[in-house]
Amino acid sequence: MSIVAVLRQMNQKNFRLKNKKWMSQGRNMVRVKHRNVKNGFVEKKQSTPPTPPKVVSKKLFLPFPSQSYRHVNDNVHNQLYLYYPVDKIVDTPEFQRLRRLKQTGLAHLVYPNTEHSRFTHSLGVYCLALDFIRKLAENQPDLEITSRDKLCVAIAGLCHDLGHGPFSHTYETILSPDAKWHHEIGSTDIFRRIMEKPHVKEVFDKYLDYDVDIDFICEMINPPKEFMKDGKWVLKGRPIEKSYLYGFVSNVHDSFDVDKYDYLLRDSKSAAPISLSDCSITRIRDNMRVGFDMRLGFKRLMYATKVRDELMNVATTRMKLHDSCYQHQKVRACEYMLKEALNCVNHLLKFYGDDGRSYSLKDAYKNLGAFLRTDDSIVSMIRCINPEHPDSKQAMRIMEDIECRRIPPLIGETDIPSDAKLEQFQDYLLKKLEAVVSEEELDQFFVLEKSLHCGLGLNTHPLSKILLYNHKTLAISQLEPIENDLNWQRIWLGASPGVKKMMVFTKYDASSKLKDALYDAIKAYSEEHQSTSPSKRTPTKVLVEQKESSVRRNLMQEEEEEEASASGHPHRDRSPIAPRQNGNGGEELATPRAQRTRRNAPIPKRFQEDGPQALSQKTQRSTIAAGLRVRQKTRARNIPKSNGRASRKKQSASSADSESS
C-alpha cells in the first residue's frame, strides 16, 4: 500500500480531542461522550459543527515586469516601456482625461513651449518609479522586494495626478474654504474607480492582491503626515518592515521623490534652464539605499554622502522654477483673471454626474462622474454660453483681455515675515492709500501671496531631514545613517529654506497716481519691517521721464538734420568716416560733426520756456509731425530712380560715338 493511501485512511478515522470524540458520518458531525456510551448504544446529540482550522493558501501572482510591453518615445527619458498590464490603466477614459490638462497651468501664456500635459508627466513618473525600485532591489537583495511591490510603486507613480482639475491648481483656488478637498483625494477616488472596472480587475487580479495592494497604492498617492501613532504602525498596505516603499512617489519626510524629479526636468526643458540634469537624477538613483531612522522608528530611503550636492540642486531648482515659471508675475495675474471669469459663469456651467444630477463647476468634485467631465476645455465652454447673459458677457470680456495681453501690471513685490497674513498686509496698504487716492480707486488693486520654498515649507529645509550613509562601506549589512558634515551644513543649510512674498497688482487701466501711491506704501512697509526693498520693473514717474527724454532726443536729431540740409550739406550726418592726419603724422578716423555735437547739444528754447505739462503736449504734437515726415521720406524713397552707373555708361557711349564720328 502506498503512503498516499495510508494517509487517506488515517484522515477518515475518528480522532479524539480531550474528552470529546468527533465522528464523521458523511457531511454530519456527531458528538459522542464516553459516559453516554452503554452496551454499544450511542446517544446522538445534535450541535453546531465548529469551523475547522482555516488553512491560508498562498496565492501565486504573475511576475512583473512582464515580457509584453508598449514602447513610447519621450523627450525627457528618451524611451518608456509600458509593461503589461499597466497599459490597461492607461487605456481608460479616466486616465486619458489627463491629455486635456496642462501640466503647468497658465505658464504657457509666458513660456509658449510649456504646453505639455499631465499625461506625459504621469508616464514619466511611472518610468522613474519603476527604475528606482528595480535599482534598489538590485543593490540590496536582502530587502526582498517582490514583483507586487514593484508593480504597486509603478502604478502609484502613474496615477498620482488623476485628481487634478482644470488648469492644475487653479481649480482648487475657486473652491470654498470649507471644501477640504485636494487633488490627492481625487486621485485615490478615481484610481479605485478604474481598478473596479470588470476588464481591469480581471487582468490585475492575477498580479495584485486586491484586498491589500489597492489600499497600499492609495496610501502611496496620498500618504498621511505621520506613519506611527502611540508607537503603533497605522498604515494598512505594507508592514513596518517595508516602510521605505512609501518614499518613492510622495515623500513626506524629505520631499525627494520621483514626482519632483520628473516635473523639474520636464518643465525646465521648455521654460527656464536649470543646473539639474538627467545625469544628476541617475546619480541619485544609483546611490540610494535603505536605512533605519532612529528618530522616526522605521526604515527610510537614504543617500550616499557624495550626492549631497545633487540633492541640493533639486531643492534649489524647485524654488527657482516656482519663482521664474509657476509663480511668474504674469502667470499669477492671468490666474487671477481666469478665477474671476470662472466665478462669473460658475452657475452657468453644468456637469452631469453618475447620479443623473447636474453640478456646478465649484461642486463638481462632489461627484466623480461630474468631476471627470471637467478639463481645460472649460475656456471653450465659456464662449459657448448665451452671450446675452450679463455674467457670460463679463467672463468673455475677461478672456478677451487675457488674449489681448491686457494683463494687470505688477506694482511691487516685497518679502514679509513667514507668520504674516495677506489680510494684514492688504489692510496696511488701504490705510496708506485712503489719504492719497479716492474711494473708487481703492478697488483697483489686489494682492497675491507668493510662497517660495524647497519642498517642506518656509521653516524646514529638506536637506536637514535626509538620511546619509558612507558610500565607502563595502558590506551592505553594515550600512547605517551618519550625521551630516558640519562644514557642509554651514555652506548649504545656512541658506533660507523659503521666503514669503506679497505681489501687488493694479487693474490694467489704473491711474498713475494710484500706482505711485501703492509703490510708496509698499516701500514704507518694507522699511518698517526691515525687509528687502520692493522690487519693481520701473516706477511710473521714471517711465514718463524716459519716454519724454527719448522723444526729446529724436526731435533734436531731426532739427540738426534740417539745419544741415538747409546749409547745403544734406548728407553730412550720413557721410562716411574719412581718415585724417593726427599730430603724430598718422591717420585717425574722423567722426561726423553731428555725432560729436549731438551729445552736448543745448535743449531747444521751446522746451525751456514752458512747464512739464506743456512739454508733454508739445512732445505729442512733435511726435505726430515727426511721423508725418518719416512717411514723406519713405514715399520719396519708393519713387523709382534711374541707375547712376547705367546713365554714366550711356553718357560715355554717346561721347565715344561723337568722337568716332
UniProtKB/TrEMBL annotation:
It comes from the Eukaryota. InterPro entries: dGTPase-like, HD/PDEase_dom, HD_domain. Gene3D superfamilies: Hypothetical protein af1432 (1.10.3210.10). GO terms for molecular function: dGTPase activity. Residues 614-623 have a biased composition (Polar residues). Residues 652-661 have a biased composition (Low complexity). Transmembrane segments: none annotated. Pfam families: HD. Residues 114-273 form the HD/PDEase domain. Residues 526-661 are annotated as: Disordered. SUPFAM superfamilies: HD-domain/PDEase-like. One of its GO terms (cellular component) is nucleus. One of its GO terms (biological process) is dGTP catabolic process. Belongs to the SAMHD1 family. This is HD domain-containing protein. It comes from Steinernema glaseri.
